[in-house]
């Protein structure tokens, strides 16, 4: 029996193709389904700087001579907002009638493992918004390693070069697309499942990939907004990019609560539980 390819809504937390969103275009190509894309307006770059119509508030026909393969719709909102717009407003925007079968959220630039990261993740939020709307959904996240990425023979390895990183990211996209297809084809047997979360490590082990069915590690948050008086915290903690001005005749501004979390507890369990996603 031939299984019909789903009509996929692709959303993303890092924006359309750019240096800060390097995966989404290749995943779109790998999926090879009819896709719409509703990313947040963030970190986007025009690929054709000679024209202002690269990103525009007006629609225009695709320019295949430039290699354009699809239309990207930018939404100033969270991935869950993008999912809702795509599911319930997309047909009105495009004057079409294409009910969405599957929401794919990602690939995220960074992993989403453990409960603390997962419930805070915009990427998982995009997938959960789909499942809460009665549409099957999959979140995809790519795990990065700043140092000592995993290797096939457990040897010490330096950080990946830019070329190696791009190579393994391409492999990750191919396998992610295959996993999405397999999950979709088997979904009728998993009637209690509303959403899946896929985490893919960008490292040498992708040359011999293994798929592990896991549960979410029960990680916890610690203090996210330290006070200046706490140990190892600068005397004056300020939000990034904010430099308030103070007049000489005014009282000095009070301390700022800035987002300066210590994520070690949420990333690296001291005693990892077998069968979890860390």
Automatic annotation (TrEMBL):
What's the superkingdom here? Eukaryota
| Gene Ontology molecular functions | hydrolase activity
InterPro entries membership = SurE-like_Pase/nucleotidase (IPR002828), SurE-like_sf (IPR036523), TTL (IPR027746)
Domain Survival protein SurE-like phosphatase/nucleotidase, first and last residues per copy: 8-220
Identify one Gene Ontology CC term for this UniProt entry. P-body
- Protein name, entry field: Survival protein SurE-like phosphatase/nucleotidase domain-containing protein
